[in-house]
Design goal:
By secondary structure, the chain is an alpha+beta fold. The two termini are about 40 Å apart. The chain has helices at about 5-35, 55-60, 85-90, 120-145, 150-165, 175-200, 210-215, 220, 255, 265-275, and strands spanning about 40-45, 45-50, 70, 75, 95-100, 105-115, 230-235, 245. The chain has 3 domains: about 5-30 and about 120-200, no CATH class; about 35-115, Pdz3 Domain (Roll), CATH 2.30.42.10; about 220-275, no CATH class.
Length: about 280
């Protein structure tokens, strides 16, 4: 059964939406490689340190929880959207102007923040590559065939692509929650859809009538061969595959029956009567 135009449009829309979400997830995950060793929040746009990793470069630089970072380099922190990217672009040592609450007073402190090294998640990169391979195979199958089996296989590969590539990372915002929801939905839907695909596919091997007629049947194999010597026959069995054996002739040609004294004929008959084939 061929797909309709509406079905093709729905498949295209779902594929574009999932691929767009995958690129957003990949970008957020890649940004997490440029990690910083302290957590922060924003207060009217100003970066406020929440916690500092023990033994990190931020702790060695003198950064403390509760510090308000006013300046990063020469840029006010309320004008900076991507803090990780900004720290990476400036260099290894980043000058910071920090407002620190000491008692009832607020002091201004100048610090040199040490940017940590990149932490690349190679396992995620390999899984993302496998996911894109799944998507490419599914698209190839979808374009090659327009039947139900190819569409079902495409959705199996699309869900596999989603499971491999979608990995929520970064700040817990609306995008993070949407990516997490899509990943969980794909993880739940993938096993039953895969089971349904293997129940439908593959189809029987003999699909065309000419192949079915070329397949030897018990009715044809029960007939004698054109020479009257013997025939191939099938033994009754519950197996769908025929069990072949060689049937020895019950009647001999009249011209051979008259020459029983011939040594050649006797030897040939003796050899043929003891022959038995099976595969």
């Amino acid at each position: 059964m061929r797909r309709s135009l509406l079905a093709n449009f729905v498949i295209l829309a779902v594929t574009v939406a999932i691929v767009a979400g995958a690129f957003a997830s990949f970008q957020r995950k890649r940004s997490s490689f440029e990690r910083i060793d302290f957590t922060f929040t924003r207060d009217n746009g100003v970066v406020v340190v929440k916690a500092v990793d023990p033994g990190s470069g931020a702790e060695a630089s003198g950064l403390r929880p509760g510090d308000q970072i006013w300046l990063i380099g020469d840029t006010p922190s309320n004008e900076i959207e991507g803090l990780q990217k900004t720290l990476r672009r400036i260099g290894q040592k980043v000058p910071l102007i920090v407002a620190r609450q000491v008692g009832h007073q607020t002091k201004t402190v100048r610090l040199n923040y040490l940017v940590p090294e990149l932490k690349i998640d190679y396992a995620y990169l390999i899984l993302s590559f496998i996911g894109f391979l799944y998507l490419a195979i599914g698209l190839f199958t979808l374009f090659r065939g327009g039947r139900t089996e190819s569409t079902l296989f495409f959705f199996v590969t699309l869900l596999s692509f989603t499971v491999y590539v979608y990995t929520p990372a970064g700040d817990i915002d609306a995008t993070y929650k949407i990516l997490q929801l899509v990943e969980e939905f794909a993880t739940i839907l993938l096993p039953p859809l895969t089971l349904n695909f293997f129940l439908v596919f593959p189809r029987p091997i003999v699909r065309y009538q000419r192949l079915a007629t070329a397949w030897p049947s018990p009715r044809r194999t029960a007939r004698s061969s054109s020479f009257g010597i013997g025939s191939w026959s099938t033994s009754p069995s519950t197996s769908p595959w025929p069990s072949w054996r060689w049937r020895t002739p019950t009647a001999w040609p009249r011209r051979w029956g008259r020459s029983r004294s011939s040594g050649f004929t006797s030897a040939w008959r003796s050899a043929s009567c003891h022959s038995c084939w099976s595969i």
